[in-house]
Amino acid sequence: MDALLHNTGLAFGLVFEPYVLIVILCSAVFGLVVGAIPGLTATMATALLVPITFFMPPVPAIAAIVTATAMAIFSGDIPGALLRIPGTPASAAYVDESYKMTLKGQAETALGASLIFSAIGGLFGTAVLITAAPALAEIALKFSSFEYFWLVVLGLSCAVFIGAGTPLKACISLLIGLLVACVGLENPGGYPRFTFGNTELMGGVSVIPMMVGMFAVSEVLRYVVNMDPPARIVVEKLGSVFTGMWGLIAKYPAALFRGSALGTLVGIQPGAGADMAAWMSYAVSKKFSKEPEKFGTGHVEGIVESGAANNSALAGAWVPALVFGIPGDSITAIAIGVLYLKGLNPGPTLFLNSPENVYAIFLVFILANLIMIPLGWATIRLATNILRVPGKILMPVILLFCIVGAFAINNSIFGVVVILVFGLLAYVMEENGFPVAPAILGVVLGTMLEETFVTSLIKSDGNLLGFFERPISAGLGVVTFVILFWPLASRLVRHLRAKP
User: How many CA atoms lie within 13 A of 316 on its CB side?
Assistant: First the structure.
């Protein structure tokens, strides 16, 4: 206990000094701006900070990365709610839900839920990181390609539930996404597929330009095609985003806990990340909701659970990163490089040799999620001014930013072609009742699905029973089959009961 109090005191001294606090504040503003710009991701925010961290001591360097990524994940919800354009991939899972709430005049509730429950989820993940990091990381290390395969299939099965229309159309949309994921050399055989001799397609279709095209460009097309557009939604006076939040916490405690816990667990799995956590949590929320018919119409419950999940996943990803030096996602992969650069080699010895620095990282997580609330509130107030801009001005500006962002990703005109093609595809799909979200999910998880499946078959010498021989793999497999076939089984039971 004396050692704990001593290390905590040293950590407070490292974090609560003017220089570190200024770094945290500047990183928070930077993360909020990057996350709110469609096409820029939390990973990009982290990468842009790395050159600056070269000139910082260890604690402010890590504090900059932690704070910026937490803010970016939240602020991606702001353009999603106001313009139906998710700022980051982690916000795409529930962008339709939040935007439809804005259409119904509930923008402050949607944005308030995103803000408050992102902060709560982040604090929950931090609590798990502090109290159970070694034990949870040890469990995560037991995951092999078999377990990851079932985890991906479980994530893909979410497409059946996130589709607002019929499950059949949601599955077709998912298959389109999986087909797009097959493009390029990113496959176990390293063989170019569906490239048609185009070298740009060798690297596959990047999810960021695709997402920007399917959400942003499709909105621009819809505005242009509709010759008699409805009156634009103008938030003349946004109410307090904090109004009703205590009521939501009291109404959805199970959803809040479920999203925070699932987000943390998914974040701990190397390679999963906040994107997958948000998709899975939204699907789980709809599955266990008492009002599943309201999902897709502007229902706050999905935002409560998914918003908590994507921020808790950030802290969860640091569990294997700190304890074993294994990155939980692309963000922690960059952070591990910074830790090595600063002489803080991740692993069990870090807790022995530099415990005060570990505790300082814990404190930064807590501080980042606490300051998210006032800074996020200020960002929301500023961002709502976008809706006062006339559509004939706003839409061309959005398209211009999309084109510039798509070009900047790889400094290639190919990115611009991608957003235009997928914008047109998304417009046609939505006009015919096909949801866009499952297609995005298929691209995000498609490559990982194929790699884990082929790797597992090689390990088991082609024996499919190998997917059920390991305890965790068998458990995940059973859960996946139950979720996939539960709707069919329940329909069959109802049919048999209806017979005389």
Answer: 31
> Which residues on adjacent β-strands are paired with residue 184?
193
Q: Which DSSP letter does residue 266 get? A: H
Q: Which residues contact 438 (CB under 8 A, 6 or more apart)?
A: 159, 162, 163, 170, 171, 173, 174, 177
Q: Count CB-CB contacts under 10 A for residue 68.
A: 28
pLDDT tens digits, one per residue of 7-36: 677 777 778 888 989 999 999 998 888 787
Helix orientation angle between 253-268 and 300-324, rounded to the nearest 10 degrees = 30
Say if residue 46 is exposed, middle or buried (CB neighbours under 10 Å; 0-12, 13-18, 19+): buried
Tokens read off for 52:
């600056």
Please work out, in degrees rounded to the nearest 5, the angle formed at the alpha carbon of residue 197 by the alpha carbons of 440 and 216: 30
- Reported pTM: 0.69
Which residues, at least 6 apart from 78, have a Cβ–Cβ distance to it below 8 Å? 35, 36, 87, 111, 114, 379, 380, 383
- Cβ–Cβ contacts within 10 Å for residue 378, how many? 11
Buried b (16+ CB within 10 A) or exposed e, 182-191: bbbebbeeee
Q: Which two tokens stand for residue 186?
A: 């990113």
Give residue 230's pLDDT. 45
| pLDDT tens digits, one per residue of 324-334 | 666 666 677 77
Closest to 119 (Cα-Cα) out of 378, 305, 312, 384:
312
C-alpha angle 249-279-489 in degrees, rounded to nearest 5: 95
The DSSP-derived string for 139-193 is HHTT--HHHHHHHHHHHHHTHHHH-SS-HHHHHHHHHHHHHHHTSBS-STT---B
DSSP codes joined into one string, 383-422 = HGGGGGS-HHHHHHHHHHHHHHHHHHHHTSTHHHHHHHHH
Report the C-alpha gap between 52 and 54 in whole angstroms: 5
Both structure tokens of 276: 């997958």
DSSP 231: P
| Residue among 156, 155, 147, 151 at smallest CA distance from 467 | 147
What's the CA gap between 269 and 260, in Å, rounded? Answer: 15
CB 277 within 8 A of CB 312: yes
Both structure tokens of 467 = 């997917």
Q: What is the pLDDT of residues 108-127, one digit of tens each?
A: 888 888 889 889 988 998 88
Query: Would you say how long the chain is, in residues?
Result: 500
Centroid of chain to Cα 56 = 29
Q: Tell me 347's DSSP state.
A: S
> What's the CA gap between 471 and 464, in Å, rounded?
15
